[in-house]
Specification:
heterodimer, A: 115 residues, mainly beta, seven-stranded mixed beta sheet, four-stranded antiparallel beta sheet, B: 114 residues, six-stranded mixed beta sheet, five-stranded antiparallel beta sheet, globular
Chain lengths: 115, 114
C-alpha cells in the first residue's frame, strides 16, 4: 500500500497563476483533509471531505477550492496564487465509524512557493 | 484559552534520558488524543493514540492521559538522537461528529544530544 500520495512534491508559481494539488489514498478511508503548515503557525485545516460527495471549509479556506473526485482522490486548487499562499501543503485521510477512525495519515507534502 | 497548547521548546535531553512532552487541552475537546512525530522537512507520522484515562505503552513510548488535570503527555524512554523531531499533539474537537477533524497543537521540538 502506498498510503497517501501527493503530487507534485515541489512547485514554484508566479502571482496570479493557478494550479491543482493532487492527493490520493489507497486505505479505503472515507475522510480526507488538506492542511497548510507555516513556520510558527502549526497545521491549519484548509478544507476537508468527511465522505465522498461532501466538502466543507476548514480554518483557512480563502483562496482555495477543493474537489472530492471519488473516494480515493481529493484535490486542492489555487485559482490565483498569492505570495501569502507560499507554504507546505499536506493531504491526510482517516476512516470513520470507530474511535480509531480519527487517526489521520499524512501524505509527503507539497512545497509551494509563490513569487 | 487555546484548545490545545504545547510548549514549543526546544526541549533538550541527553541520549539515554527520558524525554517528557506535555500537551494541555481545553474542555471543548473530546477524549481522543494523538501524538505525531514530524522530522524536519517531512510529514507528520502518527506514533501514539490514547482514548482512555491512564497510560498506554508502545515500545519506548508511553502516552499518559489525565482527564482531571486536562493534559496528555508523551514519555520517550532511552531517548536516541533519532528521536530528535517536533512532536505534535492532536485532539478531536467536541461537536465534530463523524468529520474526523483534529485540532493540532503547535508542536514541541525535541533535541536529543549524544
Amino acid at each position: 500500500n502506498a498510503g497517501v500520495t501527493q503530487t507534485p512534491k515541489f512547485q514554484v508559481l508566479k502571482t496570479g497563476q493557478s494550479m491543482t494539488l493532487q492527493c490520493a489514498q489507497d486505505m479505503n478511508h472515507n475522510s480526507m483533509y488538506w492542511y497548510r503548515q507555516d513556520p510558527g503557525m502549526g497545521l491549519r485545516l484548509i478544507y476537508y471531505s468527511a465522505s465522498e460527495g461532501t466538502t466543507d471549509k476548514g480554518e483557512v479556506p480563502n483562496g482555495y477550492n477543493v474537489s472530492r473526485l471519488n473516494k480515493r482522490e481529493f484535490s486542492l486548487r489555487l485559482e490565483s496564487a498569492a505570495p501569502s499562499q507560499t507554504s507546505v501543503y499536506f493531504c491526510a485521510s482517516s476512516g470513520t465509524g470507530t474511535s480509531s477512525s480519527y487517526e489521520q495519515y499524512f501524505g509527503p507534502g507539497t512545497r509551494l512557493t509563490v513569487t | 484559552q487555546k484548545e490545545v497548547e504545547q510548549n514549543s521548546g526546544p526541549l533538550s535531553v541527553p541520549e539515554g534520558a527520558i524525554a517528557s512532552l506535555n500537551c494541555t487541552y481545553s474542555d471543548r475537546v473530546s477524549q481522543s488524543f494523538f501524538w505525531y512525530r514530524q522530522y524536519s522537512g517531512k510529514s507528520p507520522e502518527l506514533i501514539m493514540s490514547i482514548y482512555s484515562n491512564g497510560d498506554k505503552e508502545d515500545g519506548r513510548f508511553t502516552a499518559q492521559l489525565n482527564k482531571a488535570s486536562q493534559y496528555v503527555s508523551l514519555l520517550i524512554r532511552d531517548s536516541q538522537p533519532s528521536d530528535s523531531a517536533t512532536y505534535l499533539c492532536a485532539v478531536v474537537p467536541i461537536g465534530s461528529g463523524n468529520t474526523g477533524k483534529l485540532i493540532f497543537g503547535q508542536g514541541t521540538t525535541l533535541q536529543v544530544k549524544p
